[in-house]
Write a structure and sequence with these properties.
By secondary structure, the protein is an alpha/beta fold. The chain is 42% helix and 16% strand. It has helices spanning 14-26, 56-72, 91-95, 108-114, 125-141, 150-160, 181-187, 210-218, 235-239, 257-265, 280-287, 318-330, 332-349, 352-366; strands spanning 2-9, 31-38, 79-83, 100-104, 144-147, 167-169, 197-201, 226-230, 246-249, 268-271, 292-295, 310-313.
Length: 368
Amino acid sequence: MLRFCFVMEQTLGHVTHTQNLARCAEKSPDIQATWLNIKPEGTDIWEKLPGIRGNWSLKASLRAKDALNAYLKTETPNVLFFHTQTLSLFSPAFIKRTPGIVSLDATPINYDTVGEAYGHTPGSGWLEKQKFRWYCSVFQQATALTTWCQWAKDSLVTDYGVSAQNVTVIPPGVDMANWSFGKEKAERPQATDRSPRLLIVGGDFERKGGRYLLEAYRKGLNQTCSLDIVTKEQWVQKEIEGLEGARVHYGLTANSAPLKELYANADIFVFPTLADCLPIAVMEAMAAGLPVVATDVGALREEVVPGRNGIVVPPKDSNAIIEAVQQLVKDGALRQEMARQSREIAEQTFNADTNYNRILNLMRSIAK
């Protein structure tokens, strides 16, 4: 029996990633998995110390270090898996004893390029150079690295001097069996007996470009479409007051039946995000057989192929959103073809069974 210890960041789409990876590990009879889930909130000492409580990377890495030290007092794992690099700053000390993989959705330098919408400002000077050297050490000493996308792998190789042979691109995935409705949806003719339903899913509605979608909806999309919004932001309800056909859905959790029902009933997924890496919500939309209107930020072009399964629009451009959505509304054949292509790409590239087993197989290959 192989003992795998997963140290997992619990923010944003990484929660869904953890759940999907855990489901795959549970199906493997040769694996005993332990999950050390590191949350952004806490009552530990690191939440109270000035200079640490406001630095998520350092705080998360210290929490991961504490959790690992407690775990290692009673267990001896064969492999360690750190996701993401945010909580891996102290990983080299552990990887000296146990083989370890560091998994990234984006490098720190990747993050700097999209960080403004996250409220992140790239640092400068001595402290930033020290951070860069620290991460270089982490990446160089990892037994292996995985990235969600080619965008992140390219940064590891170009910016951090990591050997390309030590980096494997393994995107997260969607359980295609649990999203099987998407296959049928993608193959049947588009509904013509009702207004097309638009869907956006994003806990951080502001960063996901939600205000620009609402602006587009007010400026004309409400005449031809309805809109479903899945978010955690309570202020959105007030924003849609008086907007006919717009609905907000709160409290929906990853992979839940109500969430999947919204995907199943939608016709177009609209994701005008201002900053993202490789969003799982877009993968879910593709698995659900939906054409996607999205912005070209982060690694989104590795999901949305312009003209094939979606339309790419500039960030902060409500008029471009209107034009893209109306193109799909007016051309049912195009909408159906993009829906079919979305599902096909999801099955080929973002299949959970395939991708999460690739992670487990990589862990098996380096097990001590």
